[in-house]
Amino acid sequence: MKSIKKFKISTKELSRKEKALFQKLVKTAELIAPLYLKQKNNKYLGANFYPHDAKVGEIKKAAKKDPAILSPYTFVERNKSGKLIAIPYHMKFRKELKPIAKLLIDAAGLSDDYNFSQYLISRAHSLLNGKYEESEIFWLKAEPFKLSFVIGPLERYLDKLFFTKCAYQAWVGILDEKRTKEAEKSKNIILTGRRKILAGSEKVDISKVGIRVDKTAIFSGLIADFLFIGTNLPNSVDLMEKYGSNLSIFDGSLDLKFKNRHFPIFKTVFGKNFQKSYSKDLLHKGSLRCILSHEICHSLIRYRDAEKRLGRFFPILDELYANILGIKSYGPLLLKGVITQKELEAILIMHICWNFTLWFNSLKNPETSHSAFGSAIAQNFYLKEGAIEIKKGISWPNFTKLFICIDELSHILEYHLAIGNYKEAKEFIDEYGSFDIFKLFLPGLKRVLKKN
Question: What Gene3D superfamilies does its record include (predicted)?
Fold first, then answer.
């Protein structure tokens, strides 16, 4: 089925009743994919959220009279007279959402966890009435649950016109207690670091950051196409400021990408002698640490006016800065003896492989191009500054220069997100955003692309 990805996981730790609940949630998640597919359309910057003949200026003008036009939860259509009007998701998809809500109510009756039951009921109601904040606040306050379940219109990456409209997605998983405890330790150490806030910026402080690692059973909707390894929700700056955020790391997606992308890329783009110094297990841990710090650092880089100032360039710089600041955060951990020099090198290596992966993803799924541009900026910046050297399709990193580059790039990105403007962001992306650096490796990478 399109836009659904299932992972094999063990449910032996679940009781018979919990297994029945789990299966009902999986079935519920499956039903969200068709709604996402009605939103998706990579032929148009606005996907199917806006009339395909509507211009940006026309949409902005209509939104001044009717703010619902640029609500995250509406389709924009033309009425009989050609005027742009807003149709809320919950009204457009009422027929499809009713059975989804019913399954959630039924699932709530199977849960012995009162808070989880109430969350499912609250989410069912929100899907039908379009009032999503109430159930999101409940989720932020009550997490973590044994079972992980998130559903609804959440991420904005399909909307390349305004980065506003949210696409449907869902996931189901089981809490991985061991990995969650390890992630909690890393989170606490990283969050103790404080950055100097640039004068004039509208920095938002997040009150609480929850974290969990899941044994994921299913992705549905946007998350199945993008195959996220982690998320940081909610997206609303106001909600994050008041109630905090929850980070989710998906170990099934991580393991899949490491096996099919990160490790094969490592074996392709680095020299044979260089490869001998790093075990597969060490690199896997480095890959996990990359995504873990990325999601944690998303909570540190929220600026109230950044999306408005940077427009369509915001997701490029936002995702890249979370990557860069995340890698940078491991420097103090090395000094404190929390990680070793070799472990830091593995993180840097996986960061480079991650950049290739993001470019790969954009070739098959154009909706992910924002991440690909960010990865190109990083690679080109490193090459220009001499942190990586390319000889016949083989990369040789200078770890000292690479870490200095990461620090320098973090300050540049901080400026853009904190106080920079659209014109400056465009000039920066135009200077460093070329994909040619990845194409230098194509002869060897074609084998990786064919297998996946």
Answer: 3.30.540.30
> Which amino acid, residue 402?
L
323 belongs to a structural domain: yes
Residue 268 lies in domain:
230-451
Q: Are residues 33 and 165 in the same domain?
A: yes
Which residue in 445, 448, 357, 441 sits closest to 392, CA to CA? Answer: 441
The rounded distance, in Å, linking the Cα atoms of 102 and 79 is 32
Count other Cβ atoms within 10 Å, centred on residue 134: 13
pLDDT digits (tens, 9 = 90+) for 315-360: 999 999 999 999 999 998 898 898 999 999 999 999 999 999 999 8
The total number of structural domains in the chain stands at: 2
CATH assignment of the domain containing 111:
3.30.540
- Range 161-194 burial, b when 16+ CB lie within 10 A, else e: bbbbbbbbbbbbbbbbeebeeebeebbebbeeee
pTM of the model: 0.89
Phi first, then psi, for residue 239 (nearest 5°) are -65, -40
Neighbours of 154 (CB within 10 A): 21
H or E segment and range at residue 141: helix 133-142
Q: Which amino acid is at 145?
A: F
Residue 175 lies in a domain: no
Output Rg (C-alpha) for the chain, integer angstroms: 22
